Amino acid sequence: HRVRASHPDFASLFLGAAPTTDAQLAGTVTFTAGGVTTVAAALTPNAQVTGVATRAADGSRAADACMTFVDEHGRTMRFFNRRNSGAFDVSIAPGDYKVRFDNCFDEFDSLATSWVGGVSEATATVLTLAAGHQLELNAAVGAGSAISGRVTDSASGAPLEGMCVDAFEVGSRTVDPQRVETDAAGNYRVPNLGAGEYHVRVFDCRAEPAYLVTWFGGSMSRTSAAPVAVPAGGTAAGKDVAMRTGDVTVKVLGPGQVLSSGADTTAADPVATSFVTPNLTVFALGEGSSPEPITGYDLFPAQVGSSETLVHPERPYEVTVELDASLVGGTPPGEIVAFHEGVPLRPCGAAPPTPACVVSVAAQPDGDVVVEARATFLGDWRFGTPSPDGVGLLDSATGRWYLRRAGGGPAVSFLFGNPGDVPLFGDWDCDGVATPGVYRADSGRVHLRNGNSGGPAHVSYTLGDPGDVPLAGDFDGDRCDTVSIYRAATQQFHVFNDLGNGSPATVFTFGNPGDVPFAGDFDGDRVDTVGLHRPTDGRVYLRNSLTAGAADVEFLYGNPADRFVAGDWNGDGVDSPGVFRPADAKFYLRDANRAGIAGTEFSFGEPPWLPVAGFTGL
């Protein structure tokens, strides 16, 4: 197993023969049946950063400001100020960072993004924070700038609603751009930017993508995108983007594997890991790296022929991409180019031969290899394009369930369970569809059904102690949901990776008395972890690993009496918060794990009913 030691005031450490802070380089610790394995951890104290953000215009405290740290690989860590005071008290692992002050609430036009020591990420000062280092950073933040424009279909000129628009600083490696969606007229406006140059990316983030990722200026790649100059405190308007559709199939193989002659992977071609993606970019992770996402989806190591090679980047590996020439449209008809640290390697050519154009790039141990297939596309991801989750309600007084259809319409209704049961909702049989379950708190009995219809339970067993709170989720990334429990008396999570009453895979402590637990995939790695909603102040606390420690993400959302759920509401592969508000019998769903207003709200059900969330296929 990989073993990590963590503490809120110290840098986490993966243990083994060569302890490391980098998860990708972590070794393993061997455990034998019935034996005792002793490991030791010497943790390094975090650095402590304090400061105050004020508004440049009048010197008042910037209550909506966040302090964001960007490490050498472009990964970001965002911290909210204390109780809307504009003051910060941050504990962070030692390392080299660039720091920016920005607006915590993307929906509101308030603050410019302001870098410490520079006008952009490229010119910002690199701050080396040593163990136990104490640093004060203050900032006077100006008014935000913006980029606006319209997104249309290149063939018809019709406006496109629901397209995601990202703004990246030119020269930035940050992986979390400012993002908005287009309205019904195809219009967008990206607020809260600092003055400078940006690259604007538009991609189809709807449940069923149909358009090619396009950068402002018509490019399919950031390397050739046209920069947008943004004035201080003003708006760069008229940055319109026209998008195209088409088809492409991409295949990815592990080291030493051979492509079949067919244009698409089938059951007869088991060595290949195939997917059809609207993003056309495969990320091969280098040592400790998190490459800039040129497009929306990452390929996770478990989906390559051998995940071993990707978690040990010092070992050579290859990523092979096959582009089906018969499906490629546009001018040029298609090309595949590999990039290492932004430098193109071994281009395949503007006109790939029939049936396919294949390029193989050996990994570089000192950085990222990005293999980008440039072509038009249309299709579903072979492993399951993330589809938006739906919601349901259980009338616990009668045992009747109500599942909401996408877009509204009559609910699917059926009886399952007994009055007083606690609802569960998950994919118990690994078929991709969530179905009902109940937890009987007085006896600890779990009853699960593999269909969204009335009838007897397909799986039943005993789990936990009276008073435990059940949680449904895929806690090991095997695409099958299981039931775990939260023991409120001790604030302990007992995580089970199988359906049954065996021993938990892990037990850890997280939260305070009175917190309400929930589960979800909050960072898009396809493994569910846990979160807490604190009804006393409406704060949400998320962990991105099944371990004890401080929250990885913290923000305000909801009211004290709200009933909390989490789900992937927009199909981007990341779960975010939602609440059912008994006061008005409405759901309020948010598409991001940060404070702000609901992106979607609708009336459904009755005040006493209990909410659930998951993909129902309805």
Map the helices and strands:
Elements: E1 4-7, E2 10-14, E3 47-55, E4 65-71, E5 76-80, E6 87-92, E7 95-103, E8 114-115, E9 127-129, E10 134-136, E11 139-141, E12 145-153, E13 163-169, E14 178-181, E15 187-193, E16 196-204, E17 214-215, E18 228-230, E19 235-236, E20 241-243, E21 250-253, E22 273-275, E23 281-284, H1 307-311, E24 318-324, E25 335-340, E26 343-345, E27 356-362, E28 369-374, E29 390-395, E30 400-403, E31 412-415, E32 422-426, E33 435-440, E34 445-448, E35 459-462, E36 469-473, E37 482-487, E38 492-495, E39 506-509, E40 516-520, E41 529-534, E42 539-542, E43 553-556, E44 563-567, E45 576-581, E46 586-589, E47 600-603, E48 610-614
Parallel strand pairs: 3-10, 3-11, 12-19, 12-20
Antiparallel strand pairs: 1-2, 3-6, 4-5, 4-7, 7-8, 7-9, 12-15, 13-14, 13-16, 16-17, 16-18, 21-22, 21-24, 23-28, 24-27, 25-26, 25-28, 29-30, 29-48, 30-31, 32-33, 33-34, 34-35, 36-37, 37-38, 38-39, 40-41, 41-42, 42-43, 44-45, 45-46, 46-47
Radius of gyration: 25 Å
Biggest sheet architecture: 5 strands, antiparallel
Measured distance between first and last alpha carbons: 39 Å
The total of beta strands comes to 48
Helical element count? 1
Output the structural class.
mainly beta
Mean pLDDT reading: 74
